[in-house]
């Protein structure tokens, strides 16, 4: 199973704006290969690098004292052997290495190796042909100039071919080296002498044994790798930012459209009747949208509020639920006018967008994680800290990781409240719309019918807070504003409630007259 | 007479989203009559037992409280031989804003914290007051014998 394949298959299912900004997994894989070659040409295979990068100071000291018995000579006639042999030799002259990133204003990560070398040991190891073999193995350079000094402008990673006998590993390393920007750190660890010395390999023998030299190697292929990666991450955050603002725009737009469709037909809503709404509109659209939103909320497509599985759903589960939602609306055979159908489709599209966004983020994060793991595994170089990546790649910021949740919230805050929900206007006692609404002195709201029942039974305490507010309530406690609002937004529920209450009152009166329902004979 | 909306809604929720350790199922032929099962709370002498109760919603409900009774024998200071429960919200503290669910949760809580100072079964309460450990052992034994 190739991850690269399933990754590109998933991307292919997403809209182009996401595809274009996704991490180019295959390209990055190729770059890792180039980096492995680049490091290999320096004799730095993963094992060597690993041991150098994890060298303790103690080991460093000991290696300086070890006699150069093994590996002091190499056989130039067996080139297949050269690389590994060089590697072991290299680990003897190179005492310690550090992998680091310098980040300039353009926010690119410049990876480099800082290596401390024991020059005298180097002398012992690289006396003859092995270094020649090494250099001839190395990749050809963009800049074949013969003698580029350390303090000259060296193109990053440019490797100079030098075929004369003085060519050495150290020389090759120097060609990779870029001088430290002044004033940050001394190039030499122990001696304060000018780093310029390094540009003259001939002088190496004069360096005392106890000294170690420091070389900084800029890794060209590695820089390409991180440029590719961070560019993709930056592109992703731009795509997400665009998606977010487009989403919010269409959400607001849609909420205006739905408000117009679902607006209550009653005149209460329009203080000054305009010719347009003199004709009473049917309440069909209001109830259609109420049903759509109720179904939508009950399905909890993206986030569950249930005890057993609270939190984000998997994208598979969300997709399933979204499909079910669309299907249910279709199955109800709802009479959606053309305008309403268009609005409903836009509503669905917004949900699909959130779903795609989550798929994209999950895939992108997974690809980044995998490629960094591969990078470390193939090269032996440790992964940069996530902090270093966040600095150049805003996509990893909290704002973007929580974007799907933000959009789900926005939907719940902007779109769904357009249609008031019955639960918020229910009488706690009869569980119907609290019509006519009576507000007690304590602030609690009940329907007039339930309140009358409480009073008839002499119950003085509010059923919710137990304050003694029930018996004082009278006609003035009816909330007229709320009454009109209920008539506007819950016309069917209000009608049903009046109906039920009417029958109940009738029955009560019959009973008071001594005639129970059972024995009424007409 | 059709069932009030309030009872329909409560039943729906009891069946679809039951509270942990509590089940309440209405009879097919009388939707005001429920078969209830409460599991004995962890750490109480009733742990491991499943207690059957009956719950009835009178015509006046929710103006009047539901009538609840243990069917399973239980050794508890606030529950008598007939299964009647001494619980204030089932009597003078009833409020029509309370529900079947809240009532059953309160009964479950009563199993966790018996109150011998407000007894219904005076002999059990006396036992609980004078020798709590011994009384709890009897409760455990009854749970094992009648509720498992
Ligand atoms: Zn009411
Ligand atoms: Zn109140």
From TrEMBL, chain A:
Keywords annotated in UniProt: Metal-binding, Zinc, Zinc-finger
InterPro entries found in the cross-reference section: SPX_dom (IPR004331), Znf_RING (IPR001841), Znf_RING/FYVE/PHD (IPR013083), Znf_RING_CS (IPR017907)
Bilayer-crossing regions: none
Listed name of the protein: RING-14 protein
Domain of life where this protein originates: Eukaryota
Residue ranges constituting the RING-type domain according to the UniProt record: 427-466
Domain SPX: 1-389
SUPFAM superfamilies assigned: RING/U-box
Keyword Zinc part of the UniProt annotation: yes
Biased composition (Low complexity): 70-84, 131-141
GO molecular function terms listed in the Swiss-Prot or TrEMBL record: zinc ion binding
Annotated organism of origin: Sistotremastrum niveocremeum HHB9708
Zinc-finger among keywords: yes
Region Disordered: start-end pairs: 60-89, 131-161
From TrEMBL, chain B:
Keyword Hydrolase: no
Signal peptide (UniProt feature, chain positions): none
Region (Disordered): 129-148
EC number: 2.3.2.23
GO molecular function terms attached to this record: ATP binding; ubiquitin conjugating enzyme activity
Cell cycle recorded as keyword: no
Family, per entry: Belongs to the ubiquitin-conjugating enzyme family.
Protein name in the entry: E2 ubiquitin-conjugating enzyme
Lineage: Eukaryota, Fungi, Dikarya, Basidiomycota, Agaricomycotina
């Amino acid at each position: 199973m190739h991850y690269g394949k399933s990754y590109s298959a998933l991307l292919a299912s997403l809209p182009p704006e996401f595809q274009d900004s996704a991490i180019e997994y295959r390209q990055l894989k190729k770059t890792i290969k180039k980096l492995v070659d680049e490091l290999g040409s320096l004799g730095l295979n993963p094992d060597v690098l690993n041991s150098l990068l994890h060298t303790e100071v103690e080991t460093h000291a000991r290696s300086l004292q070890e006699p150069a018995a093994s590996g002091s000579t190499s056989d130039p006639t067996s080139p297949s052997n050269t690389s590994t042999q060089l590697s072991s030799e290299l680990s003897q002259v190179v005492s310690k290495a550090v992998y680091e990133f310098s980040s300039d204003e353009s926010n690119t990560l410049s990876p480099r190796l800082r290596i401390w070398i024991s020059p005298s040991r180097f002398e012992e190891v690289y006396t003859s042909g092995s270094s020649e073999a090494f250099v001839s193995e190395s990749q050809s350079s963009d800049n074949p100039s013969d003698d580029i000094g350390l303090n000259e402008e060296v193109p990053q990673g440019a490797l100079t071919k030098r075929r004369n006998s003085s060519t050495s590993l150290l020389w090759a390393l120097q060609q990779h080296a870029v001088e430290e920007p002044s004033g940050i750190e001394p190039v030499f660890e122990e001696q304060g002498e000018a780093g310029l010395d390094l540009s003259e390999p001939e002088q190496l023998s004069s360096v005392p044994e106890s000294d170690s030299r420091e070389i900084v190697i800029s890794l060209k292929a590695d820089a390409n790798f991180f440029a590719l990666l961070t560019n993709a991450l930056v592109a992703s955050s731009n795509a997400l930012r665009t998606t977010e603002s487009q989403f919010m725009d269409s959400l607001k737009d849609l909420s205006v459209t739905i408000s117009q469709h679902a607006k209550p037909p009653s005149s209460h809503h329009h203080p000054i009747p305009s010719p347009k709404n003199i004709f009473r509109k049917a309440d069909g659209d209001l109830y259609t949208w109420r049903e759509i939103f109720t179904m939508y909320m009950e399905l909890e497509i993206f986030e569950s509020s249930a005890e057993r599985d609270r939190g984000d759903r998997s994208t598979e589960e969300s997709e399933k639920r979204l499909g079910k939602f669309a299907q249910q609306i279709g199955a109800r055979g709802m009479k959606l006018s053309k305008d309403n159908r268009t609005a409903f489709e836009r509503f669905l599209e917004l949900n699909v967008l959130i779903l795609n966004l989550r798929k994209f983020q999950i895939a992108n994060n997974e690809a980044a994680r995998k490629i960094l793991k591969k990078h470390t595994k193939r090269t032996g170089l440790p992964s940069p800290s996530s902090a270093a990546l966040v600095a150049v790649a805003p996509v990893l910021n909290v704002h973007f990781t929580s974007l799907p949740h933000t959009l789900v919230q926005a939907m719940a805050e902007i779109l769904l409240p357009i249609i008031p929900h019955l639960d918020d206007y229910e009488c706690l006692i009869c569980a119907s719309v609290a019509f006519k609404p009576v507000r007690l002195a304590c602030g609690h709201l009940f329907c007039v019918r339930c309140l009358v029942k409480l009073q008839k039974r002499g119950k003085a305490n509010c059923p919710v807070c137990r304050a003694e507010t029930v018996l004082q309530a009278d006609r003035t406690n009816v909330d007229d504003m709320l009454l009109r609002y209920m008539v506007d937004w819950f016309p069917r529920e209000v009608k049903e409630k009046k109906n039920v209450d009417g029958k109940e009152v009738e029955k009560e009166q019959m009973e008071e007259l001594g005639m129970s329902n059972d024995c009424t004979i007409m | 007479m059709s069932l009030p909306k309030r009872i329909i809604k409560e039943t729906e929720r009891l069946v679809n989203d039951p509270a942990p350790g509590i089940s309440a199922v209405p009879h097919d032929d009388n939707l005001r009559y429920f078969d209830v099962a409460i599991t004995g709370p962890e750490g109480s002498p009733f742990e491991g037992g499943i207690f059957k109760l009956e719950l009835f919603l009178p015509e006046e409900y929710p103006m009047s409280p539901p009538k609840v009774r243990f069917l399973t024998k239980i050794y508890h200071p606030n529950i008598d031989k007939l299964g009647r429960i001494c619980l204030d919200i089932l009597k003078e503290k009833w409020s029509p804003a309370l529900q079947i669910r809240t009532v059953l949760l309160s009964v479950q809580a009563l199993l966790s914290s018996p109150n011998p100072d407000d007894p219904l079964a005076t002999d059990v309460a006396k036992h609980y007051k004078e020798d709590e450990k011994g009384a709890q052992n009897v409760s455990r034994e009854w749970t094992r014998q009648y509720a498992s």
